[in-house]
Amino acid sequence: MNFRIIQPAASLSMYIKHYWCLEMEACEAVGERIVPTGYVELTFHFADRLIKRKLTDEMQPGIILSGQKTGFFDVLPTGKISMLSIQFYSHSASLFFDLPINELTNETLDFKDVMAAPARELEEQLNELFTIEERVKHIESFLLLRLSQKTEYSWNRISHNIHLINRFNGLITTDQLASEACLSRKQHDRIFKQMVGLSPKQFLKVIRFQYTLYSHQLYPNESLTELAYRCGFYDQSHMINDFQEMSGITPKQYFNDCINPVSDYF
């Protein structure tokens, strides 16, 4: 298995957290549970595809645009894996795609259904390249052409609030966020949802889940009750309910059963 993190070019670093790539032979490939991360991703498959398993089994397309998630699903390999994924900052994907990001929530869409001809052309061009570095460079050229500043004013407001959420590890109220943006609660909720994909309340719930994973990394010997209070839950039962909603299992099961239970966000 070969897993790599690649940093974006300076011109895209305020919009993209990083790229990750995964190469794995068929004999190594195993299924994985996908949980909410707080990010929108654009993922490219260069070998065999994955099957998304929720209520039914669904073969994933070659390029997938994945929206914000509030729940979990499983993916199963069908053979060799060769993937490259763009992890957009929570509020930035809306600058690259001509649709409200909340239309992607809990969806994994065929990128060709979103962008048609440009997506097909991009897929063909990437398949003619052979190194990750060449593919990343080509993708960045594509993204820079797509980059639009038409929503810059709203983007700056929401960007400021995402930074606040990160600074306080999600332990901030929706009223405080609206006040920081100089918007009414209703206006802020609408703009935030269009740009991030979730309402502020839903997003804070995802970030609290991710902060719990991060806190467990830092304090692995802390009890679940201590962890719950550290991360802003009312009590341990509250934390258990959120974990079951977002991962399908309890915190105890998650930390005991997952090979590497780390936060993708922090």
From TrEMBL:
Q: Which organism is it from?
A: Paludibacter propionicigenes (strain DSM 17365 / JCM 13257 / WB4)
**Keyword terms, alphabetized:** DNA-binding, Transcription, Transcription regulation
Any idea what this protein is called?
A: Helix-turn-helix, AraC domain
The segment(s) forming the HTH araC/xylS-type domain are 156-257
PROSITE patterns reported in the protein's UniProt record: HTH_ARAC_FAMILY_2
Q: Which residues form a coiled coil?
A: none
Mind telling me which SMART domains this protein's record contains?
HTH_ARAC
Q: Which domain of life is it from?
A: Bacteria
Q: Which GO terms describe its molecular function?
A: DNA-binding transcription factor activity; sequence-specific DNA binding
